[in-house]
Write a structure and sequence with these properties.
- There is one protein chain.
- This protein folds into three domains: 104 residues, no CATH class; 122 residues, no CATH class; 150 residues, Flagellar hook protein FlgE (Tick-borne Encephalitis virus Glycoprotein, domain 1).
- It has two helices and 29 strands.
- Strands 5, 6, 9, 10, 21, 22, 23, 24 and 27 form a nine-stranded antiparallel sheet that branches. Strands 12, 13, 14, 15, 16 and 17 form a six-stranded antiparallel sheet that branches. A four-stranded mixed sheet has the order 18-19-11-20, with no helix packed on it.
- Helix 1 runs antiparallel to helix 2.
- It is rod-shaped.
Length: 429
């Protein structure tokens, strides 16, 4: 008689309980993937190398492998911008202290004292760096590092203004004296302002004054545009201001016929002192786009006023978009890419070797990884401020635990029955 079948059954059931217990223990581990024990029967071969399977009883069971199931876990919002979840295929790549690459689905990242983005094990998240202009430089993945410095100021070079001038307004050109008196609203019709910046990021308050110059229902009305910078005349002299441009409208007021394309260029050569007593630097070559300006019979109104300058700023935060780009946020309202997360995927994910710490390493069975950014090819997209839950189904695991317990009891009963049969033989006289 043999006890092999029962012993192998006990061993397999015990291993199955270990796998189930590990699943239950990690049911709340972010990025964890459930495992299952897979079994195979065993038969003894004849000495000739063949087995008479039609009359041969098996000699038990063995655990063929413990495979992990890489199905998608639920995405749970956390509100932490550096909590990252992959919705779809792929793994984060991290570099451990010995420069070995590990792969994980657990996106609990934080910033280290060196500015690197690391996980709880201190491994550095890999991705593509960005240059000083915020352009992502793809190539070999390196540890991502947030910038420690601020963002330099940018001088204003372009501005766009969209507005409507009231065609019902009267001509306000003075009959004598200077072309305009900025302190006398009778010499102009409307005014608006925008803040620009010099090369040091110092503010320059630019005011535009619109003065109706003529009314011509056949050729279209004309308007003079004057400007001041911190109260100092732009164009001409303080005693003899001159317009920075003259707008010529089509007869129906829907478009400008001059200047061509609505393009105005002017210089601020001598800006006045700002409210804090600072005299800004000159700003030259400002390109003003007024192609969207109209002249209809409705009240004056500015619908869009933008310019491309800004002051210096310091880093205030970081966010990650769905393509994995790290977006640095600055105190001056500007944003700039600081890098991009690179994901890796494998043809055979079950060939990965689990090494603990929510990580796997590549093996010959898994093959070499294919890499890319989130959303490319068959790679999943990035969810910032979220984490992927374990895909362990706790209810199913508890039911499997009951089944494995019954298997263990049944195999123990097999051994007990064999023992009783053996005892009967021993007792024969």
């Amino acid at each position: 008689m043999g006890f092999q079948q029962g012993l192998s059954g006990l061993s397999a059931a015990s291993k199955n309980l270990e796998v189930i217990g590990n699943n239950v223990a990690n049911s709340n581990t972010f990025g964890e993937k459930t495992s299952r024990a897979e079994f195979a029967d065993m038969y003894a071969a004849a000495m000739t190398g063949s087995a008479a399977n039609n009359i041969q009883a098996g000699i038990g069971v063995q655990v063929a492998t413990v495979s992990q199931q890489f199905t998608q876990g639920n995405i749970t919002p956390t509100g932490n911008p550096l909590d990252l979840a992959i919705n779809g295929n792929g793994f984060f790549q991290t570099q451990d202290p010995s420069n070995q690459i590990q792969y994980t689905r657990n996106g609990q990242f934080k910033v280290s004292n060196t500015g690197n983005i690391v996980n709880d094990q201190g491994n550095k998240l890999l991705g593509y760096p960005a240059d000083s202009q915020g352009n992502v430089v793809q190539g070999a993945a390196t540890p991502l590092q947030l910038p420690t410095g601020g963002i330099d100021p940018q001088v204003t070079t372009k501005s766009t203004m969209e507005f409507n001038l009231d065609s019902r307004d009267k001509v306000t050109v003075p009959a004598s004296g200077t072309a305009i008196d900025f302190t006398n609203q009778a010499t102009y019709n409307n005014a608006t302002s925008v803040t620009m910046f010099d090369a040091k990021g110092q503010t320059v308050d630019v005011s535009y004054y619109f003065q109706k110059a003529s009314t011509d229902p056949v050729n279209g009305d004309t308007w003079n545009v004057f400007a001041t910078a911190n109260g100092v005349t732009v164009g001409g002299t303080p005693d003899a201001p001159s317009p920075i441009s003259t707008l010529q409208y089509s007869p129906d007021g829907s478009a400008l016929t001059s200047p061509t394309g609505g393009a105005v260029t002017f210089d601020i050569t001598s800006p006045g002192q700002s409210a804090d007593g600072v005299t800004p630097l000159p700003i030259t070559g400002i390109s003003l786009d007024v192609s969207g300006a109209t002249e209809f019979g409705s009240n004056f109104g500015v619908t869009n006023m933008v310019q491309n300058g800004y002051a210096a700023g310091s880093l205030t935060g970081v966010s990650v978009d769905d393509s994995g780009k790290l977006i640095a946020q600055y105190s001056n309202g500007q944003t700039k890419a600081a890098g991009q997360v690179e994901l890796a995927n494998f043809r055979n994910t079950q060939g990965l070797a689990a090494i603990g710490g929510n990580a796997w390493k590549a093996t010959a069975a898994s093959g070499t990884p294919t890499v890319g950014v989130p959303g490319d090819g068959n790679l999943g997209v990035m969810n910032s401020g979220s984490l992927e839950d374990s895909n362990v189904d706790l209810t199913a695991e508890l039911v499997s635990m009951i089944t494995a317990q019954r298997d263990y009891q049944a195999n123990a009963q097999t051994i007990k029955t064999m023992d009783q049969a053996m005892q009967t033989l021993v007792n024969l006289r």
